[in-house]
Amino acid sequence: MSKKTSGIHHITAIVGHPQENTDFYAGILGLRLIKKTVNFDDPGTYHLYFGNQGGEPGTIITFFPWIGAYQGEIGGGQVGVTTYAIPEGTFHFWQKRLEKFNISAETATRFGETFLRFKDPHGLQLELVERQGGKLNDRTFGDITPEVAIKGFGGAVLYSTDFEQTNATLVDTMGLEKVAVEGDLIRYQSTGYLANIIDIRQTNMARGRMGVGTVHHIAWRANDDQDLIAWQNHVDQNGHQVTEVKDRNYFNAIYFREPGEILYEIATDPPGFAHDESYETMGEAIKLPAQYEEQREKLTESLIPIEVRELD
Ligand code: ZN
To answer: What residues pack around ion ligand 1 (CB closer than 5 A)?
Structure first.
């Protein structure tokens, strides 16, 4: 049985102060804070989700903001660069916008595309690239309008400790297709229109260290719960040690570490982020899973208040 993911569901990273995180991803990049909840394993800290206006899979970056935690090291076994797709003709807008907020960025070219590369305040490597695929993001915030807004992920650049195995897993297990080779990069594509281009560096990199400014895991899309079980069998049959299904409140998920040491998750599209609050008000209130609801007062006291604010 072969299976193909349509692309990235979400990417999760570790960062520093939650207000700096919110100012950058909401205030500057113009993403919507779609969920404000707690780390289920450490409920005194936030788990923040940013995405397009609809909070759709393929647009979602999530953060564990840890104040005062160790700075990590980007390296093998991680998503090295997170790529966002912007509408065609908006490169200049974004270049100007980053300049306006004193974010140093450089341009780089690969596979015939021009990328604008920069870092977030905690060290995560990001880039923007114009892509035709995927619908516009119906987001208006500050100077950002749907015509220029980030659509979602373009994809990612993977750093592996064993690139041949990472190549093989992406094709044999996740079902992506090799589409191009350039320098020390191989480009793979999934079946979706967005969050669908993965470049893998063809160099074994020294293992990175998890901490602030590093990506924790990359999640791939499964259609629904039934599909997730099929994925679990498929991953197991491909020789990977896969977890049981975990309830993540907004999706169900399984996890495995691919042989190049990158942590993979496979997550269902449903139920999505509007299942415990309305679409209109998503992200405004702190949402707690049922097991923590009794401790709401105490937990919310330990969380630093954050706000989404226009910086324009
Ligand atoms: Zn995840």
So the answer is: 12, 219, 265
